[in-house]
TrEMBL record:
Signal peptide from the UniProt entry: none
Keyword Nucleus in annotation: yes
Main location: nucleus
Compartment(s): Nucleus
Keyword Nucleus: yes
Protein name, per record: DNA-directed RNA polymerase III subunit RPC6
InterPro entries on file: RNA_pol_Rpc34, RNA_pol_Rpc34-like, WH-like_DNA-bd_sf, WH_DNA-bd_sf
Alphabetical keyword list: DNA-directed RNA polymerase, Nucleus, Transcription
Family to which this protein belongs: Belongs to the eukaryotic RPC34/RPC39 RNA polymerase subunit family.
Region (Disordered) location: 1-22
GO cellular component terms given for this protein: RNA polymerase III complex
GO terms of biological process kind: transcription by RNA polymerase III
SUPFAM superfamilies: Winged helix' DNA-binding domain
Length: 241
């Protein structure tokens, strides 16, 4: 009997009530409009132009928005399309990348400092380890002590793609041999691009990344194997180029 009394107490009833239950009629009308825009949200200017809202709401939108934010049923989200404008959306939704810009935008602006730091640490990781994967770079970044915010796998993937376009690293498929021994065969990995060198200098097999991206024998090729860069006539022609 005591259990029944406790479960039906006024306090427990209030806990079961949704946040919207405390809204006035005008607040609820505006909240429902905002919530209908899901993860895109809507600006105050667009709310004022909405013809479905009654005059009592349209004339008091700014005041109602402050109240809804204070009651934590809606939130403000910066947009990359217009840095001076904020969208409002229900707190249950995460902002779409369409308005936030993605993983490297903060408060509507591109975080170039974070991008440059991630690129530097990823290149360091790949250069020191000779071969690394996306997971390897992610773990390296998290343990580096450089970043105070959580680094995600999606961010690292985008950084690696950028480094490839910047001609800083090369994407390869692991052979499982030599420098690739730590990476399972067939898995995507990355090596640092060889830079510098004297003009006319002959490339060395030991410090030159394999150029055989399209070779059908690449999965069984290794420096010590029956098929290797040392005995491959096509690879030797590339070295002599």
């Amino acid at each position: 009997m005591n259990r029944l009394k406790r479960s039906s107490s006024p306090e427990r009833k209030r806990q079961r009530l949704s946040p919207e239950s405390s809204l006035t009629n005008d607040e609820r009308l505006l909240y429902n409009l905002i919530r209908s825009k899901t993860d895109i949200g809507i600006s105050a200017a667009d709310m004022k132009r909405d013809t479905t809202l009654p005059p009592s709401v349209s004339s008091a939108i700014n005041k109602l928005l402050k109240t809804l934010v204070a009651k934590e049923v809606i939130k403000e989200v910066a947009t990359i399309q217009n840095k001076g404008r904020k969208n409002y959306m229900a707190t249950e939704f995460m902002p779409s990348t369409e308005i936030t810009g993605g993983h490297f935008y903060s408060d509507g602006g591109l975080d170039t400092g974070l991008i440059d730091a991630l690129k530097k640490v990823c290149v360091q990781c790949i250069s020191l380890q000779k071969v690394s994967t996306c997971d390897g770079c992610l773990e390296w970044c998290r343990k580096s002590g450089v970043f105070t915010t959580e680094i995600t796998e999606k961010q690292i993937k985008e950084i690696l793609e950028t480094l490839i376009l910047d001609d800083e690293i090369v994407q390869m498929t692991s052979t499982g041999y030599g420098d690739f021994a730590s990476v399972p065969v067939g898995r995507t990995c990355y090596i640092a691009k060889r830079k510098g060198g004297v003009k006319g200098e002959k490339k060395s097999v030991n410090n030159t990344p394999f150029p055989c991206f399209s070779c059908q024998r690449m999965s069984v090729c290794s420096p010590e194997g029956a098929i290797s860069p040392e005995t491959c006539v096509y690879f030797q022609k590339w070295l002599d180029f």
